Amino acid sequence: MSEAEHPQRHMLNKFINALRDQGFLDENFSSLGNLYDNRNMLSLFCDDAEPKLDRVEKSLKNENVDFQGLVTIIEQIKGNAARLGGKRVAEACAELQRFCGTSDVERCNEAYKKVNWEYYILRDCFHHILQAERTIRSHD
C-alpha cells in the first residue's frame, strides 16, 4: 500500500483540514511540504517557545515589568509560529504585544494566558500530526 493510499493518510488530512477550518493553521503550514521531513522544524519551535513562555510568565510577575523585553520575546514566538502556520498562536501573540504597549499588567496576564493556551493546543496538534506521519511511514 502506498503512503497516499494509507487509511491514516486520509484521517490525517481530515485532521489538518479541521485545524485549518478552526483557524489553528493557515497556508504557511501547507507550504512546509513533507511534514515528516520538517519534523525537526516543528520540534525546534516547541523547544524554543516553551522557555520563552516561561520567561514571559515570570516577567509579568515582577514588580517592574519590562514591557519592551516582553514585546521582543513575544515577537520571536509570533514570528516562528506564523512561519509554521500557527495562526491562532500568532494572533494571540499580537494581542499580547498590543497590551504590552499599554503597560497594563492585568490585560497582559490575560493575553498571556491565551497565548499559552493556544501554544499548547498547537504543540499537541503538531505532536499528533507527527505521530500519524511516523505511523504511516512505518507501514510502508
From TrEMBL:
Residues 34-136 form the HPt domain. One of its GO terms (cellular component) is nucleus. It is found in: Cytoplasm, Cytosol; Nucleus. The keyword Nucleotide-binding does not apply. One of its GO terms (molecular function) is histidine phosphotransfer kinase activity. Its main location: cytoplasm. Keywords: Cytokinin signaling pathway, Two-component regulatory system. The keyword DNA-binding does not apply. GO terms for biological process: cytokinin-activated signaling pathway; phosphorelay signal transduction system. Gene3D superfamilies: HPT domain. PROSITE patterns: HPT. It comes from the Eukaryota. Functions as a two-component phosphorelay mediators between cytokinin sensor histidine kinases and response regulators (B-type ARRs). Plays an important role in propagating cytokinin signal transduction. Histidine-containing phosphotransfer domain (HPt) contains an active histidine that mediates the phosphotransfer. This is Histidine-containing phosphotransfer protein. It comes from Cucurbita maxima.
